[in-house]
Amino acid sequence: MASKPRFTKQGTTPTPDPEGAPPPEGTLHPVDEKLPPLKMATTGLQHVAAMYAGVVAPPLIVGAAVGLSAKELTFLTGACLFTAGLATFLQTLGIWKIGARLPFVNGVTFAGVAPMLAVVDSTKDKDDALPIIFGAVIVAGLLGFIAAPFFSKMVRFFPPVVTGTVITLIGISLMPVAFGWMQGPNPAAGDYGSTKYLSLAGATLVIVLLLRRFTRGFVKQIAVLLGLVIGTLVAIPFDVTDFGPVADADVVGFPTPFHFGAPQFAAAAIVSLCVVMVVSMTESTADMLALGEIVDRPADEKTIAAGLRADTLGSAVSPLFNGFMCSAFAQNIGLVAMTKIRSRYVVATGGGFLVLMGLCPMAASLIAVVPRPVLGGAGVVLFGSVAASGIQTLVKAGLEKDNNVLIVAVSLAVGLIPISAPEFYHAFPETAKIILDSGISTGCVAAVVLNLLFNHTGRGGEADEVTAPMEPGGEISETRVPKQAAAH
């Protein structure tokens, strides 16, 4: 039997326990260790670097859609950094029954971007768009907080076939945003989509790919961030880089509560963001289960409920400081697995850096300097990685069962309608279009309903297996694996 490391006192190195005996009293689990200050700071910064691009992308996307000025976009980005830090504190340090107390980084979830863009598109006065979004996030967060202990018991209704489909849709739904960025900052300009902009986007994409291919460790982890920096420097001679936002930004600032107006509560937006909250809670549950195994502290029902409370409370509080819905960042789980540093206090230190960055508008303004084509080139990797993550989940979803093939096929088709046929729902009421125009929301609902129909009712749980891949346009094979054989 493989031996497990003996948990040690704070600041010491674990020693093997050949007997595999329980750790003696007074010893500390690696998750609860506090490392030396310098190591705590550097490893905490590494977590920030790994997730920074993911945190700033949603406010950039939504802020640009609303039509915010560079200064307001900087404010919104700083607010999201600040609230991500607060949510990370809740998750890692915890209070009462809130927080998984695992090395979990929280930040703005990508799942909410497409529904928020649908809200922006359907709002006549763009000044009302952010208040409507903030109101919907508050309600979704509070409802999620109440539902957390019950949701932790309902994980079986969100298997990989559902979560994988939704995560894939998140990535695919965001790709048009990256393609729009690649063409330039202003769709109405004569040079929109010009060779100059597309070349900058392509160069940035190549830089990110080369960094991912030929570097290791920390540099590889921050390849997207480095790609943005190098791409911006390359863009300077082309006169498409504006350093005005940095010059105009204050060194110290605070995300004033309700800066964009008091929250407004629109039913359609609330329903749409509640669906996103369900998706977010599902992703967080899966992440907690994975992280629990990595750090040798398996996440039980109590831990999952506490972690979901932190996610949802962080989301409910975030709009007070002009931030969006928060969720766990899966890329940081990979960082924990790679570095073998399991201390939750390291991640809490990273949360502290996020708060400090949110309180320094000049630091937050740096992302506003990055030209749109450069963002687009990096966005292809960033958003494509989200879709690839969903495909990885689908690989584990049991697609040898034709029921699951149908669930994925139909759910993806429903979720892709707003992308492939943007005017498909043009005859529907505006309130309904807020939900229907979000492929993530509709795809998620379709996946859950179809999973219940095929795998939780009647004989759906005994789905036959597909014995060979389907040819394009072909029908599902009627040749089945005998149930006795399939059971082995």
Automatic annotation (TrEMBL):
Family to which this protein belongs: Belongs to the nucleobase:cation symporter-2 (NCS2) (TC 2.A.40) family.
Q: Which UniProt keywords apply?
A: Cell membrane, Membrane, Transmembrane, Transmembrane helix, Transport
Listed PANTHER family = PURINE PERMEASE C1399.01C-RELATED, URIC ACID TRANSPORTER UACT
**Cellular component GO terms, alphabetically?**
plasma membrane
One annotated GO molecular function is: xanthine transmembrane transporter activity
Q: What is this protein called?
A: Putative Xanthine permease
Region (Disordered) residue spans: 1-34, 463-488
Q: Which Pfam families match?
A: Xan_ur_permease
Biased composition regions of type Pro residues, renumbered to the chain? 15-25
Renumbered to this chain, the signal peptide range is none
Subcellular location as annotated: Cell membrane
TM segments? 48-67, 73-90, 102-120, 132-151, 158-182, 194-211, 218-238, 258-279, 345-368, 374-394, 406-428, 434-454
- Membrane-related topology note: Multi-pass membrane protein
Main localization category:
membrane
Superkingdom of the source species: Bacteria
